[in-house]
Description:
Blueprint: E1 5-8, H1 11-17, H2 24-35, E2 40-44, H3 45-57, H4 61-74, E3 78-79, H5 83-95, H6 101-112, E4 117-119, E5 132-134
Parallel strand pairs: 1-2, 1-4, 2-3, 4-5
Amino acid sequence: xxxxxxxxxxxxxxxxxxxxxxxxxxxxxxxxxxxxxxxxxxxxxxxxxxxxxxxxxxxxxxxxxxxxxxxxxxxxxxxxxxxxxxxxxxxxxxxxxxxxxxxxxxxxxxxxxxxxxxxxxxxxxxxxxxxxxxxxxxxxx
Length: 141
């Protein structure tokens, strides 16, 4: 894969499907651009797990399934999480104190697939070597 393929973080479909919020409209626009093939995007099994976990933890099991299904229709290319990704995650966590565990796993999956750009509202990705975060708050349109 290359730098023109964008990794989509869990907060993008969650803001798009959520209540009114300053990031709702830009996240909807991002997903619409992917659906129209204006952006090439992938995600990972961990991103889907994160969506399912968050909504079910809030007691919104039906919403978890709905958001995951809609997201999979728009971004059907789901990268697996492999043992090597987990080993890389451990290294990333020891070297980068600002990274949360799930974010480190996203970076590990991205690195294994040669991805350099993530679309995410999460500032923990800022300053990660080889990773450029595109903030939905600054999304055109």
